[in-house]
């Protein structure tokens, strides 16, 4: 499971410090988990799976696909394929901006939660 945990982090292009922020722990604590010196608790498994749309079955047992499909994914792809190239480019730009904003909000929410604990 630890190799899969590291694989998720690297696939999402996070360093240990940034990934740890999503879990609400320090980089040192996360490093201990990833290196097998500390167990990955059920709480953190749930956070990882919900936050990053990761299959819990894949993370724990290595079965199935790493990421869960969104119920909206097929509809989005269908709509995207009907757009002209210029509109596709614009939609991609907007999606990237939305992702950046979401990541900032998630980091802010984690930091705010930590400060209130």
Molecular structure report:
This protein is mainly alpha-helical. It has 2 domains: 1-68, lambda repressor-like DNA-binding domains (434 Repressor (Amino-terminal Domain), Orthogonal Bundle), CATH 1.10.260.40; 69-117. 72% of the residues lie in helices and 0% in strands. It has helices at 2-11, 16-23, 27-34, 42-52, 56-61, 73-81, 85-116. The longest helix has 32 residues, at 85-116. The chain starts with a helix and ends with a helix. The relative contact order is 0.11. The mean pLDDT is 88.
Specify the CATH architecture of the largest domain: Orthogonal Bundle
Please state the structural category: mainly alpha
Give helix and strand order, one letter per element, not per position.
Answer: HHHHHHH
**Ends distance:** 29 Å
Protein name: Helix-turn-helix transcriptional regulator
GO molecular function, one term: DNA binding
Keywords: DNA-binding
InterPro entries: Cro/C1-type_HTH, Lambda_DNA-bd_dom_sf
How do the strands and helices of this protein lay out in sequence?
Layout: H1 2-11, H2 16-23, H3 27-34, H4 42-52, H5 56-61, H6 73-81, H7 85-116
Features:
117 residues, mainly alpha, 434 Repressor (Amino-terminal Domain), 2 domains, globular, DNA binding, Lambda_DNA-bd_dom_sf, Cro/C1-type_HTH
């Amino acid at each position: 499971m630890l190799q899969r945990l590291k694989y998720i982090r690297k696939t999402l292009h996070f360093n240990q410090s940034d990934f740890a922020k999503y879990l609400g722990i320090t980089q040192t604590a996360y490093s201990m988990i990833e290196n097998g010196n500390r167990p990955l608790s059920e709480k953190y498994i749930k956070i990882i799976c919900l936050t990053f749309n990761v299959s819990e079955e894949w993370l724990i047992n290595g079965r199935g696909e790493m990421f869960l499909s969104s119920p909206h994914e097929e509809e989005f792809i269908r709509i995207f394929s009907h757009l002209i190239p210029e509109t596709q480019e614009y939609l991609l730009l907007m999606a990237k901006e939305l992702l950046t904003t979401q990541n900032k909000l998630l980091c802010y929410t984690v930091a705010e939660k930590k400060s209130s604990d």
